[in-house]
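The methods section describes the discrete structure representation at length, but only in general terms. What matters is that the chain and its backbone geometry are given together, residue for residue. For illustration, here is how one protein appears when written out as sequence plus structure tokens:
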Amino acid sequence: MPPTQSNSFVVDGTLGALLIGVLVSYVLFGVTTIQLYLYRTRFPKDSLRMKLLVAVVWFCELGHIICIGHMAYTMVITNYAHPERLANIPKSLGLSSLFNAVIAPCVQVFFALRIYRLSKLLYIPIVAGTLSLLYSLATVALVVIGLEFSPFTRYLDRWGWLMDTAWGIAAANDVIIAATLVFWLGRRRETRSSNDTTTAVVDKLIAWTIVIWIAWYMVTTRLYANTFLASLNSRATLRTTMTTLPPSPSFALSPTTSYPVYPWMQTAPPGELAEMAFASRITTTRYSTLSISKTIR
């Protein structure tokens, strides 16, 4: 019997790719949830504003993962053996984009504020915030327009340029934020190059900044959330680095000077850690290594 259209349809490059993307996205959602647990246990004294931001990001992640799961089930199971239905994309895909339109700006603005704390300059955060707003508006417009278009191929022919523009804006914003963070962290490293502890901390920050901004379409939302939570959770590792590495000889007051690890250095909330660090520099140079903590508030 000659193969029918349904039997001869090749799914590896269509449904197979979709299914792999969804599975990878689910794995990364698990990583996000672990990051959330670590954040809740390590930083219970964070501000209410930060906790609310974390909650918004995670619940939007949950909504996004439910939507793409529904989309995958509809296309792989419900429409099984009906390749002609592939052009009718489930509405849940558009709804998932709305969640992404919330998550991406939240994370991008969070890192833009870090840039401001590092540089004290407003133009980069303003540019990043503007690009985030444009991406959100473009995404919402695409979702609203997509509700009226069927099949999906017709939608792409008419509005594909706006979709490309939206993702181009998001990618450009990611590059700007990552490059700016690396630049200013590098400057901090150069100005404090004589301090081994500070250099080690800044090296870690630069490495994490470079790695965590790599994204693909199907897993972009997961990577945004993991970037955000990993950045918050990294404060514990950075505190350990600052309190366990031996101090730089150039800051020693005498050959026998000791550098004790005080309890507040391990338990202070992120905001207080920076203030105490800078206050200590007024009276002594022993804890000048803690000035870098301003970058991880």
Notes: The first helix runs from residue 5 to 8.
